[in-house]
Specification:
- It contains six helices and 31 strands.
- The protein is mainly beta and 430 residues long.
- A hairpin with a 6-residue loop joins strand 21 and strand 22.
- Helix 5 packs antiparallel against helix 6.
- It holds the Pfam family NmrA.
- InterPro entries: 6-blade_b-propeller_TolB-like (IPR011042), NAD(P)-bd_dom_sf (IPR036291), NmrA-like (IPR008030).
Length: 430
Amino acid sequence: MSVSRTVLITGATGTVSTALMHALDGADVDLRALIHEESRADGPHEQGAEVFVGDLDDARSLPPAFEGVQDVWLLTPNGPRASEHSMNAVWAARLPSLDKKQRHSTGLTELERGHQMMRSVRRLGAVLAALTLAVTVGGSAGAASDPRAGTSPTSISLPDGFRPEGIAIGPGPFAFIGSMADGSIYRADLRTGRGAIVSRGPGTPSLGMKTDPRGRLFVAGGTGGDARVIDSRTGRVLASYRLTTGAAFVNDVILTQGAAWFTDSTNPVLYKLPLRGGRLPAAAQRIPLTGDLVYGAGFNANGITPTPDGQGLIIVQSNTGGLFRVDLSGRTRRVNLHGESLPDGDGLLLRGRTLFAVENGVQNGRSAVTVLRLNATGTDGRVVRRVSDPRFDIPATVAAFGPRLYLPNARFTTKQTPRTPYIAVAIPRP
């Protein structure tokens, strides 16, 4: 089984870095992007990158982006501060437990030549060679895996009775896990496995979650019919939104196209929080779902993620196993899975054109992460493999950090008591 590498690209909104992200599409990498302004995060997000905000002028802003990476593509033009930028990047890369190999540009003129070559060179290796010069910062230059993989815990113990469901990771090596029991948020350090409650819940669930580069945690409120935005550093609730007043199951959330989008497994709608300039809105918008996705008995729209080209959304319907592409207007179209389905489909995670879909196994007893390869528009997909683990016990959602996927065991089929134990499981990224 191959183990993907975590790759960081600096200056990720520039022409060359954008072309590089295109070149890496389809490669077995976990892509990160370092940008200067959070308002420009949409482009890298649409490329499937995890986005970090930092400034090469300020070394202290860099460690979260560099944590857990194996390769850095330091793309900066020549200038009076170029050497300082390189030194700051090297300092961040050489912090304890960081690997590794840094790749940096050899000047603007060569980058421009590299960009021109991109148009004609098809093989990824040739593209990268034309763009960059590799220099060793520390560790083995050819290392294929994160050296911490042997020491970081492969499971994270959660409080008894916690009833975990959603997970989000970042910025940095921190996982945020929500409780179905009371909506509390548990923050765990992935390097040690230790953690604590960072935000006490409102008494209603916290389900799907996502973080943004500002460190804000967007939380789906399940049967509470609401959504919250939490400061992931302090646990303070920054905003709360009443999405509906009737029966609801606000299940998952994704950040893309300048908005937070929430699914509702009970009502055929999406809830949209426009984030113009990163500002939180006064209220949410309702986007009715039309087209191929038809609601029935049980759990309907569940996990949500962007399409690979960033122009739409993808939703899994738990009770049918169907996968659907959704226009931003709410029009749905069934994704052609060539006879396959995603039974008990739950959380979704997109990296480039690779989609990881959690099949929680509530109905059929077979918990797995299904790996699919999508086309750019998200209208066609093929199942590549299904991966299971003996430690799975109804995993619900998935998030990635470095060469691993992390899944909290929701244990939906186990009797829930205040003393029921729970864990989140780490597996190598397929």
